[in-house]
Amino acid sequence: MATLATARAGHNDQTRVLDLAFPGDAGQAPFSRADLVVTGVDHSTLSYEVRVFLNNPDATAETPRTADQGYAGRYTVFGHGGCYGDEGHCDVPEPSADATDLRPRHPLTPLTTFVTITGALQRILAAGQALRTVTLVPVSLTPRRADRAPAPELLEFDDVSLQTYLTATDADQVTIA
Amino acid sequence: MAVRKNANGLTPSEVAELREAFEASYQLGDDRGYGFLAGIHGLPLPVYCQHGSILFLPWHRAYLYFLERALTDALRAARGDRTVAVGLPWWDWSSDVAHAEGVPGAYLPTDDATNPLAAGPVALGPSDLQLVRDNLPGAISDGDDPVTLRDPDVPDELPRQTTVQRVLSSTTFAGFTQLLEGIHNGVHGWVGGAMSAVPIAAFDPVFWAHHSMIDRLWYLWQLSPLGRNPPASLLDRALPPFPMTVRQTLDISILGYEYAAQVIG
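^ Those are the sequences you sent over. The predicted structure of the assembly is below.
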C-alpha cells in the first residue's frame, strides 16, 4: 500500500509517483484481474481524471496512452466543483459512533474507486519484469475543454493498493442486444 | 407502460414528442417542472444524489422514474391527451454510431436553435448562479435565464463495448455498481459543460439519456445469470427525497417501464 504522503512528485510536480512492488515479498498468486484501488478520494472539487502508468515515472499529461508507455487505464472523479453552502457546509464530519444517528452520510464523504490494470500488469510480468512504480497523472475535467490541464492540486486520496483476483472469465460474458 | 428506446433509433415523430414533453416540463415553475426535478440532483441544496455509494444505481433509477412520470404528465397536459406516455431514451455511448458522432442527433442544437434537448434551463437563484459561474466557467450560459452548455470530447474517447462487457461480467453487486459508476463518471466528463459537475449536471437533457443507459445496463445485468440483488441489508434503505426503498427499485415492470430490445420499421 502506498499513500499520497509517501508519493514522490513526478514531472514538473504535476504527477505523483508511488513505489508499489509486485510481486512483493509474499510472491505472486495466480490472478485474472488486477485492480489499483484508491481510497479516501476527494470529490469536492472540479471533476478530474487520473491516468495510470506503470513503470513510467516520467509520464506526463502529454504521454500517449499506449501500452509501450506503460499506460494501464484511468479513473474519473465526478466532482462538485466547489462549495455552495455557508462556511463549514462542506466539512465532512467524522463518522458518528452514535447508533441512533440515522442521518445519511455527508455527500462529500471521501470515496473509494479503482482502475483495472490487468493487461498492463500482465505485460510487465510476461516480459520477465516486476512492477516497481505507479505514476498517477491527474488532468482536470473542467466544463470547457480548453481549460483542461494537469491538476495535481485535485489529486487527494488516502492510499493506493494493488489487489489481484481470480474472477469470471470470458466464458461468463453476457451478450447484450 | 413507458418504453425506453435507443436515442439513435427514434423516429422523427418520437423525437418531436420527446422534445414537446421536455419543453412542456420547462414551462412548469413549480414542483412538477423540470427545474425542480433537475435541482434534486445537486443545486439548489441539498445535494440528494448518491455517488461513490452503493445506492448509486437504485437512487438514480428512482430519479429517472420521477422525471419520466413528470414528462408524461407535462405532455398529457400540453396535449390534452391522457393516453400519451414518455419513455426516456438511452444513449448507448459504447455503440459504433456514438463513437462516430458522439451525442445523439436528437440532442444536438438545431439550425434554428429551438431544440429543447440541446440545452436545459438552469432554474437557480441568483446566489447559486453566481457560485456556478465563479466555480464552473463554461458550464452555463450568461444572462438572466441561463441554459446548460456542453463541450464534448472527440467521440472515440467514449467508453468502448469491451468495457461495457467487463462491467456486465461482474459477479457481485458491489463490483458491478463500482465499475459502472466509474464509466458513468467518464461520460459526464466527456460531455463537458454542465454535465461535468455534480451540482448542475441534471439540468442538461442529455443527463437523462446517459442515465437511462446506465439504468439499462443494470437491468441487463439483472436479467443475466450473473445478476445479483444488492445486499439484503440495503433493501429497506430509503432513497430520499423519493418515497421509495431500494427494494422498490429492483423490478422495472413494477415501475411501469421497459427497455426495447429491438425496434424495426
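The beta strands of chain A are 2-3, 8-9, 16-22, 33-41, 48-54, 71-77, 111-116, 131-140, 159-165. The two ends of chain A are 41 Å apart (CA to CA).

Shout if you want it in another format.
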